[in-house]
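Subject: sequence -> structure tokens, single chain

Hey, anyone have a minute? Need the predicted structure for the following. Not urgent.
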Amino acid sequence: MNNDFLFIRSESRIRRINFSEIHYIEGLKDYVKIWLKDERKPVLSLSTLKALESRLPGDRFMRVHRSYIVNLETVKVIERGRIVFGEVRIPVTEQYIENFRKFLDRNFI
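Reply:
Had a minute. Here:
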């Protein structure tokens, strides 16, 4: 498995997405929206969040909610139990809080 990118089928095309470009991934039943740093619209793909999660490097990405995976390198602000990406606030739910706290503890001053 490559540690820098993956290919996603979206809108009748196959698109290469570098892991460093991903802000977060949102799951919608049988689809995922991949929100990228420099794009206003997400990349929509027919896939489950669980399937995509298994292809992402665990040291760089973390599931923080039933419907969200975040790129840990892009987490800049955490406010009241939510990860803030501009106007978007992604909750860290009870099921995933322990792993997220461990991540914070490893990187906290």
